[in-house]
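$ ./design --mode recover --in tokens.txt
reading tokens...
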């Protein structure tokens, strides 16, 4: 089954430059696909279009999700709202409401599925709370359920955001640079969590990443973008450093994590400590 089907997607924020240029791609159910590219290549813009948060140009092509048209030629389709209930989005930052507890944040995943009056008052049933707690347990942070979201580390917040998509019952997760501001140990935990949700629940995942190492380690398929165009779509195993250097030219250095000897000694120690830290 096709989960995402994009044909001829164009997006211009200004007259002289297209942020997305004739993007066409398909993603099948159960895939975990990495979206890589240098800064400004169009990863976030593409993800926002699939989520129905941005509209393409008037000649902007078509996006279907789960067989339903989400948008076509710059118009959001009528059925988009219903489809959005099945799409969970995890952003790089601002994922959670910082003053609310972790549990309440995760419960907001249910908002599309409970009556509006109950949702607005944050009145959730015991079964709904249990569902949220189960999701928190699965991502390994149930011990933090009653804490305010702002008191969690960046990695824990991202895992809470993934727990929210589990509670939502999302069948497609769009993760927009979920590990961009995390240390390596936290990044692994977040990627492991996405990987488990993908494998255990057959949830389709599209995850944009700055660095190619994570794409190779976690995703069988990678889509690479440059200047708003798809320049590679294939097995992640083909993403050798030589291939990427050729593909990205001057931008290629952005795609690799710094070698350990390029990281200042102080942060190397912190990294080592974090690798053994619990959640
Ligand atoms: N709201 C906006 N208004 C104007 N231009 C925008 C807007 N959002 C994105 N762009 C432009 O569109 C292009 C693609 O940006 P996008 O954020 O999608 O890239 P990206 O690959 O996600 O980059 P990064 O990895 O730095 O997040 C860039 O040239 C960017 O400046």
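writing sequence...
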């Amino acid at each position: 089954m096709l989960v995402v089907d994009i044909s001829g997607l164009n997006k211009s924020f200004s007259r002289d430059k297209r942020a997305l240029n004739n993007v066409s791609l398909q993603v099948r159910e159960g895939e975990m696909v990495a979206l890589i590219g240098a800064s400004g290549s169009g990863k976030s813009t593409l993800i926002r279009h699939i989520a129905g948060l941005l509209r393409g140009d008037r000649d902007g092509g078509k996006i279907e999700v789960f067989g339903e048209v989400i948008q076509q030629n710059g118009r959001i389709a009528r059925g988009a709202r219903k489809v959005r209930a099945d799409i969970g989005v995890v952003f790089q930052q601002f994922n959670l409401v910082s003053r609310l507890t972790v549990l309440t944040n995760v419960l907001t995943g249910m908002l599309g599925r409970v009556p509006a009056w109950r949702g607005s008052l944050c009145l959730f049933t015991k079964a709904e709370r249990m569902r949220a707690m189960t999701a928190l347990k699965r991502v390994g942070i149930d011990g933090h359920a009653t804490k305010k979201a702002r008191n969690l580390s960046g990695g824990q917040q991202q895992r809470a955001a993934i727990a929210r998509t589990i509670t939502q019952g999302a069948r497609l997760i769009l993760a927009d640079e979920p590990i961009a501001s995390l240390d390596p140990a936290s990044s692994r935990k977040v990627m492991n969590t996405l990987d488990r949700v993908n494998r255990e629940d057959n949830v389709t995942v599209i995850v944009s990443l700055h660095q190619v190492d994570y794409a190779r380690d976690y995703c069988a398929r990678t889509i690479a973008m440059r200047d708003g165009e798809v320049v590679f779509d294939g097995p992640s195993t083909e993403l050798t450093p030589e291939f990427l250097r050729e593909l990205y030219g001057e931008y290629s250095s952005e795609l690799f994590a710094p070698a350990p000897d390029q990281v200042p000694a102080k942060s190397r120690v912190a990294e080592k400590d974090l690798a053994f830290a619990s959640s």
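exit 0
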